[in-house]
Amino acid sequence: MTTTTTTTAIAPAPLGGGSHINLSAASTRGNGGKKKNKKNKKKSKGGLKVKDKTSTGQQQQQQQQQQQQQQQQQQQQQQQQQQQQQQQQQQQQQHTSSKQNGNGIHSHEQQPAARGAVEAGDAGDKQPPKLSLTISSSPSTTTTTTTTTTTTTPTAVATTSTASSSSTAATGSTTADGAREEPTQGATKPKKAKTSKDKAEVSNVKRKWKKPKTIARTKLSDVVPPPHLSSTINLVVIGHVDAGKSTLVGHLLTQMGVIDPKLLHKCKQESARIGKGSFAFAWLLDEESEERSRGVTVDVGQKSFASEHRRFTLLDAPGHRDFIPNMITGASHADAAVLVVDASPGEFESGFDADGQTREHILLARSLGISQLVVAINKMDMVSWSEDRYQEIVARLQPFLKQRGFAIAADAIVPVSGLEGLNLKERHALDWYSGPTLLQALDALEVRPREWKSPLRATIADVYKVAGFSSVHVAARIVTGCVHEGDTVVALPNFEYGTVKQVLVAEERVKAAYAGDACTIVLAGIDEALIRAGNLVCHPDEEPPLATRIRCKIVVFDAPRPLLKGSQFTLHHQQEDVPARIKSIVSQTNRRTGEIEKHKPRALPRNSVGVVVIALDTALSLETYEQVKDLGRVTLRQEGRTVAAGIIDAIVRAERVE
């Protein structure tokens, strides 16, 4: 019985500058006789179809032939006679399929595993031979020359075929009976057999959508970055539900001249008609009927404005517990945050207590990489602009912010009234406060450096179509790199390719968008149904790995119970959230020194720091923190509350798409 084994050696492509673990592996598969035999029809150049069949009785006959050398020689002679008969039959019946009962390599002795490597050619074909193979079973056996052609598709994976315990030489392959197949000089070597998905640390996945033949890309040497890169800041507005975030943002935008007076007048009329006149400014951002009827923000609202020194993109995040994933979406797009707290009696306390969203929003903002924060103590008109109330809130809030990694200056905590519009743009006269207005505090924020020369990484926030246009509009934030009109891009993880037709920044058409820009990319040739919020846009051949297992350094917050091996949770990354579990706990480290305190502890208790390996139920396009900081952060949530957050230290297991 002929046994064929295929050994696959995968050389992993580099996944970037970060550390990666176990990204190369080899899998050995013995396919001979293990799978059901299928009819495999191949058309040769002569137009004739050759069918290859294998049966159990024939396999038993092969075992007998291998044991007796004389029977092998007889079989060789029979094959020669059958080949001659088949050649005569092919000449008489052109363009007709005939069954191949035995010739050369692809006789009835051929095993299923080896069948995909080389296909039998038409012995009577008048075309020049592609490969000449010399077969001999023993030194005393006569040789038979057979012409064959290969039809398999080449891949980047190196494949070597061996039979029984014989290994394949560099110049040919060895059959089960010791016969060597050697290509003649000047002949074409057989193409490598395509392998199936590998089950090692890097698994190969067939590409479902073909890469376009022509890929357009703007050369970085031709790119001149615009001056706004040094002045643009993306701000997310966070805080407990009903703290007055949308009203504050709406009034600030109105004072900055961004809002159309007709739109403001319409919102005032509609809100007064249903007895909610105080919601007029909030409705400038809360445009959905559900948001207006419930009086809470559901989706992230976005508006842009410019001050004397900065350009801002404001992201109004929801404060309700039910919409924390949407808040994470907004915060993941931000460079800095505005924390709005309610100064009304009892309201600050309810938001700052253990179950309030003020604490959780602070934790999430810091875990998502936001280090700059401006605090707006809102609704000061409800406490008659009391200095005592202001100082009380500062005394409780400032130590907690410092503990969580925010360096908050005293002049970055601003008393305001979003409803009355006081101390937002213009200073409100107060005897006890001499600090900046909210706009002045925002102007003092530092602009993060933009890595516009790095590979393109753009996170999708929304996908939609505009009536009358076939192109797909993608609202995204450029994390690194830049995208130009005419570029070919690919959306992960579905590998959907498209061409950039337009780029819009602040609703104005531009030639390109750069790192840090919140923009709209208009794509042609892409299927809207196959891309969604959370997907990543890249340039072809610069895609990050599709990770299924990662190693993370995490900080455990006030979790209700310790994190154990096997603990399940929802992992949030940018706009994506997928089920995940702790595969193993590597170590527990000291929070201050970073030194390892325990190796492989059984659990990580609350307020601890450790290194864990996390298995994802769905592959995500991830980067290590060292490669791209914004894409190297994750948040872990259980039962509706944030239990931990951390950074990706290494990609342990990933899918490589062929």
Structure at a glance:
With 658 residues, this protein is α+β, with helices and mostly antiparallel strands. It contains eleven helices and 37 strands. It catalyses: GTP + H2O = GDP + phosphate + H(+).
Q: Helix segment count?
A: 11
Biggest sheet character: 6 strands, antiparallel, barrel
**Regarding CATH, which class of the domain at 232-444?**
Alpha Beta
Find the count of extended strands (DSSP E, 2+ residues): 37
Family: Belongs to the TRAFAC class translation factor GTPase superfamily. Classic translation factor GTPase family. EF-Tu/EF-1A subfamily.
InterPro entries: EFTu-like_2 (IPR004161), GTP-eEF1A_C (IPR054696), P-loop_NTPase (IPR027417), T_Tr_GTP-bd_dom (IPR000795), TRAFAC_GTPase_members (IPR050100), Transl_B-barrel_sf (IPR009000), Transl_elong_EF1A/Init_IF2_C (IPR009001)
Catalytic activity: GTP + H2O = GDP + phosphate + H(+)
Region (Disordered): 1-210
Describe it.
With 658 residues, the protein is an alpha+beta fold. Among the domains are: 232-444, Rossmann fold (3-Layer(aba) Sandwich), CATH 3.40.50; 457-538, Translation factors (Elongation Factor Tu (Ef-tu), domain 3, Beta Barrel); 546-653, Elongation Factor Tu (Ef-tu), domain 3, CATH 2.40.30.10. Helix content is 18%, strand content 32%. The chain contains 11 helices and 37 strands. The strands form 9 sheets. A 6-stranded antiparallel β-barrel has the order 29-35-32-31-36-37. The protein has a 6-stranded mixed β-sheet with strand order 15-16-14-17-18-19, sandwiched between helices.
